[in-house]
Amino acid sequence: MPVILFVLLLLIDRKNIFHVVSYISILLIYTIILVAKILNAKNEWHSDPVTSSISKDKSIQKMSDFQKKLEEISNNE
Questions:
Q1: Domain limits at 26?
Q2: Residue 61 is inside which H or E element, if any?
Q3: CA dihedral 60, 63, 67, 72 (to 10 degrees)
Q4: With a threshold of 0.90, does the pTM exceed it?
């Protein structure tokens, strides 16, 4: 979709109000869909029982700390 939006940006007639309004509408709809997907993924992340306990751990500062915790959990199971 981003490639299509880029091509449309190059091809639209900027003096034609219909083209401009259509492009902006498509861009806004695409943005809303992306934000909705991000928020949904965030909610799923916090509802997962394995990762929810890790996400509340304050000792995790880096991605490597997170990976070590995941390895510890997988070794315990």
A1: 2-76
A2: none
A3: -10
A4: no
